[in-house]
Amino acid sequence: MPRAGDPDGRRVLVVTAVEAERDAVAAGWPAVTAVAAGVGPAAAAAVTAAELTAALARGRPYGLVVSAGIGGGFAPDVPVGATAVATALIAADLGAVTADGFADVTALGFGAVSHEPPPELVREVAALTGAHTGPILTVSTVTGTAARAAELTARHPGAVAEAMEGFGVAEAATRAGVPVLEVRTVSNAVGPRDRAAWRIPDALRALTAAFRAAGPALTAQPPARPAGTDGGVHDTDATGPPVTGARTADATPPEEAP
Ligand SMILES: O=C(O)c1cccc(C(=O)CC[C@H]2O[C@@H](n3cnc4c(=O)[nH]cnc43)[C@H](O)[C@@H]2O)c1
């Protein structure tokens, strides 16, 4: 089994919101480095960027970043307990409300609202986990009404889930030239707020199962690409102490890091 840092394996950073999610990921596939970054896209982006920069400075860059955790599923197609893998990580509420409705920041002329993972990796991970595939929406406010759920599905047909971190992780990964993936297991339906109905333990068990099933594909070294299309995996002679502001579950103990 490839371990984090193995020359034969791809180094994978998994970013979750809370420690329970981080531990569920690490229980499924300990060969990844899993960090709990906090809730929301800003915390997710800040911690992802810091981890990627620190790893690069240590000369042990990551080859893949995964945003993972529990999420809301778009019922009835994606029920509680299901797994979802993103074909696109979308900032669903980054924009402006206008007289003509919501305008995202791309429509306003300010950059991207979507990041796409490598399609072949999406297909492989979905096949291994039995996941639903489609856009996963990143929101700063959890959907709490049927009307809001309908608005989101009208704007994003085929959306499979919503959560609060994916786009933030993707912004940091993309700026570092590292491919990104999002894997969610469903704890609740997107719709009228009913916190008592969230099935968090079930979703966390599903998260462990998903990483147990998909782990080998995540940490396997992908086929070599032609020069100049290395996905941002840069080699460096720089060395230094491991740096992380986040709570980490890593197969490689810090004292073993170069
Ligand atoms: O209380 C616990 O034991 C516990 C364990 C694990 C996770 C939690 C969370 O509350 C995680 C918050 C996290 O969950 C995502 N999430 C889940 N459902 C939705 C949703 O319907 N809409 C948006 N986000 C959702 C989100 O990514 C949060 O960061 C608690």
TrEMBL record:
NCBIfam families: fut_nucase, PRK08236.1. This is Futalosine hydrolase. Residues 32-193 form the Nucleoside phosphorylase domain. Pathway: Quinol/quinone metabolism; menaquinone biosynthesis. It comes from Streptomyces spiramenti. CDD domains: futalosine_nucleosidase_MqnB. It catalyses: futalosine + H2O = dehypoxanthine futalosine + hypoxanthine. Pfam families: PNP_UDP_1. It comes from the Bacteria. Its EC number is 3.2.2.26. The keyword Hydrolase applies. Catalyzes the hydrolysis of futalosine (FL) to dehypoxanthine futalosine (DHFL) and hypoxanthine, a step in the biosynthesis of menaquinone (MK, vitamin K2). InterPro entries: FL_hydrolase_MqnB (IPR019963), Nucleoside_phosphorylase_d (IPR000845), Nucleoside_phosphorylase_sf (IPR035994). The lineage of its organism: Bacteria, Bacillati, Actinomycetota, Actinomycetes, Kitasatosporales. One of its GO terms (molecular function) is hydrolase activity, acting on glycosyl bonds. Gene3D superfamilies: Nucleoside phosphorylase domain.
